[in-house]
């Protein structure tokens, strides 16, 4: 815990509102099984479907779980793909999942990680989320030291893609610093405007009267959280640039 705190406290603004709360941090960094039945069921389904071989592993929440395999293969041609994404997972659930998996049976060379949006929804503090993400990449590296971790920033979400925006931006700014501490991590970022069809928080009237502004971005499903195939194509195009 001390090491984790050291890695990210230096990135914090100095004002007191951002001070790390030890109990919030413990919640997010302590592996915990899913507390919702359908999420536990998704974990069991994922385990049952996971292949015997995986050169590339998707890891995270529903944004990882929903990533089409053929899209991943377009980035890593000829590689076997395994998906360890579980819809509904918080960071602490993903850490627990790593403890349950037969991880020694596979030896991936690349891990594509997208995780953290559910902790924003759960109102985890940015400081705790940073600690949880730090522990997650360290655990992944401990299990698969040969793998490069391609770590996505958290995509926008919400009616005008502006939900939890200050917290999301703070966490994402931290994610972009992680490669400077860990040479096995590559931050994947800079796609916010592209993936939201440049609709992110641009229209105040839409924010005030969302039902009268039905414009949608085809890269998202109706909940403006989960991605469509075209949304994954955006992420794939960004990842492909960084993985070559």
Notes on the protein architecture:
46% of the residues lie in helices and 10% in strands. It starts with a helix and ends with a helix. The radius of gyration is 17 Å and the shape is globular. The longest helix is centred in the middle third of the chain and has 18 residues. It has 13 helices and 5 strands. With 244 residues, it is α/β, with parallel strands linked by helices. A 5-stranded parallel sheet has the order 2-1-3-4-5, sandwiched between helices.
Q: Could you estimate the helical fraction of the residues in percent? A: 40-55%
Shape: globular
Low-confidence stretches: 1-17
Spell out the helices and strands N to C: HHHEHHEHEHHEHHEHHH
| Averaged pLDDT | 87
Proportion of strand residues: 5-15%
Number of strands: 5
> Span from first to last CA?
34 Å
Helix/strand/pairing class, anyone? alpha/beta
Main sheet? 5 strands, parallel
| Continuous helix count | 13
Rg over CA atoms, rounded to whole Å, is 17 Å
For the biggest β-sheet, the strand order reads 2-1-3-4-5
What characteristics describe this protein?
244 residues; alpha/beta; five-stranded parallel beta sheet; disordered N terminus
């Amino acid at each position: 815990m001390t090491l984790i705190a050291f890695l990210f406290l230096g990135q914090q603004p100095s004002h007191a509102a951002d001070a790390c709360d030890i109990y919030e941090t413990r919640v997010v960094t302590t592996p915990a099984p899913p507390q919702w039945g359908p999420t536990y069921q998704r974990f069991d389904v994922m385990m049952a479907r996971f292949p015997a071989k995986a050169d590339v592993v998707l890891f995270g929440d529903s944004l990882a779980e929903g990533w089409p395999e053929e899209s991943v293969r377009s980035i890593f041609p000829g590689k076997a793909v395994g998906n360890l994404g579980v819809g509904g997972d918080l960071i602490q659930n993903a850490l627990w999942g790593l403890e349950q998996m037969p991880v020694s049976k596979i030896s991936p060379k690349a891990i594509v990680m997208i995780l953290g949006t559910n902790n924003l929804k759960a109102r985890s503090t940015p400081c705790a989320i940073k600690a949880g993400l730090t522990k997650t990449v360290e655990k992944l590296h401990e299990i698969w030291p040969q793998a490069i971790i391609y770590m996505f920033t958290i995509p926008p979400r919400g009616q005008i893609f502006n939900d939890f925006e200050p917290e999301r931006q703070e966490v994402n700014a931290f994610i972009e610093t992680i490669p400077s501490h860990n040479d096995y991590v590559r931050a994947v970022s800079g796609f916010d405007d592209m993936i939201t069809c440049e609709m992110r928080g641009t229209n105040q009237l839409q924010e005030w009267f969302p039902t009268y502004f039905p414009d949608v971005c085809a890269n998202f499903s109706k909940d403006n959280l989960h991605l469509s195939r075209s949304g994954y194509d955006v992420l794939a195009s960004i990842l492909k640039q960084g993985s070559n």
